[in-house]
Design goal:
mainly alpha; single chain
Length: about 270
């Protein structure tokens, strides 16, 4: 992959991220106002009143206008989970990575460079792209009679580093969104909780009998926002840890395969 191609993909990824969050907000707002705020969910058909007993949609609506923001966080999280799953699946390529690495090591041990490059073409994915770049340089250096042994080894290591530098950003793209959602979901939920408790205490502070409806609304607002905030944060942390471990596994395989190729090349120079 060229640097220009990488820059173009980065631009597309940034546009996708912005569009995904905007679409998530629009969907969340429509769900909140049209579905959860539907009069059929409330006693007397009045959204300002109490929700029908056991009506979950009406209860969520009573969480106030912080709820659609929290719903946007959750919907954005779901979108980016699918995006990362698809991207990392493509980066993995066809078949099992361990099998592919073992096949490459066997072919390199038999000095079958062309067959190894063909295996990279068949496997596809980030590891295959890095290995093919290294194998191409491997083949060129075998024919080079001017460079010293140490220079050749440094050259093939550099080709791996350059190819890896082009692939890794694609693997880790949008990971910061998971860590950001994990933090802001709790904070936004806390804001909603505080606002709800303010409303609840304001109802209690009235002279005479407390306003039961306002008290119930305030408590509902606090609890709904707390629930959404904790849910969004928990799912974000799980997604971040899962995808991080997957990326680390891919990176380890790339390093392992690159080291194997470099060692094989160094060994071939000793025998020549």
């Amino acid at each position: 992959m060229s640097k220009q191609g990488s820059s173009f993909k980065d631009a597309l990824q940034n546009a996708f991220a912005t569009s995904a969050i905007l679409i998530a907000f629009i969907i969340a707002y429509i769900l909140f106002t049209q579905v959860m705020g539907n009069p059929v969910n409330f006693q007397g058909g009045n959204p300002k009143g109490s929700p029908i007993e056991g009506n979950f949609l009406g209860i969520i609506y009573k969480g106030g206008y912080i709820v659609p923001i929290l719903m946007t966080c959750v919907l954005s999280l779901i979108i980016f989970i699918f995006e990362r799953a698809i991207t990392l699946s493509r980066a993995k390529g066809k078949g099992r990575i361990n099998t592919f690495v073992s096949t490459l090591q066997t072919l390199l041990g038999e000095d079958k460079i062309e067959e190894a490059m063909e295996a990279c073409d068949n496997q596809k994915g980030s590891l295959a792209n890095v290995m093919k770049a290294g194998l191409t340089r491997y083949r060129d250096l075998q024919k080079d009679k001017e460079l010293e042994k140490d220079q050749k080894i440094l050259s093939i290591q550099k080709s791996f580093e350059e190819a890896t530098a082009l692939e890794l950003p694609m693997l880790s793209k949008n990971m910061v969104i998971f860590s950001t959602l994990a933090s802001i979901s709790v904070l936004i939920g806390l804001i909603g909780t505080v606002l709800g408790m303010i409303r609840a205490f304001a109802a209690l502070a009235q002279s005479g009998a407390p306003d039961a409806l306002a008290l119930a609304t305030g408590i509902s607002e606090a609890l709904v926002n707390t629930a959404f905030g904790i849910t969004g944060s928990t799912l974000s942390i799980i997604a971040f840890n899962f995808f991080s471990s997957t990326i680390d596994s891919y990176t380890f395989k790339i390093d392992e395969a690159g080291f194997s190729l470099t060692q094989n090349f160094a060994a071939s120079l000793k025998t020549n």
